[in-house]
Amino acid sequence: xxxxxxxxxxxxxxxxSYIENNRHSxxxxxVVLMGHWAGMRIGxxxxxxxxxxxxxxxxxRAEIRLKPTQTKGNRARTVFLxxxxxxxxxxxxxxxxxxxxxxxxxxxxxxxxxxxxNSLAIQIKLLYRAAGITGGSSHSGRRSFLxxxxxxxxxxxxxxxxxxxxSLQTTxxxxxxxxxxxxxxxxxxx
Length: 190
Prior knowledge:
Shape: globular
Strand order of the largest sheet: 1-2
């Protein structure tokens, strides 16, 4: 099976522009950004509860502590949120009606019930397709997150921890090697 497309900044902006001009833009935007800016799996996003993201005082957490039942490997892990994602979450929360701790962080348009991982993955894949981004899927954010950090010189071992992978080999498969990375590497020579 082919790997999910790694997006360029331009493609991410194209996707976000498409989302902005369509229904459920706040929800769809935050789901996409949690993948691209925090490296979260779609199943992890679907499993989030408000209390995972927002403290009792109503403050967005800088770190999301995922329980084993919320992760693919059934191992607890911490997701670190960059400050710009925290700001985006605040904007999203301004548009959310129900903020009780145990309600899903993202809800479907039909009810206050959350998405399953599969239904949210389908929703995101349809957004990529509608925005004209071929090969984009719910896993594109995660691959883009890891590839972009690798391009900025983040060590693979740190990437492994951020991704929540047990194996370094798994993390390495996520990082797309492209001409930009190769050109950047050879420019390190003297």
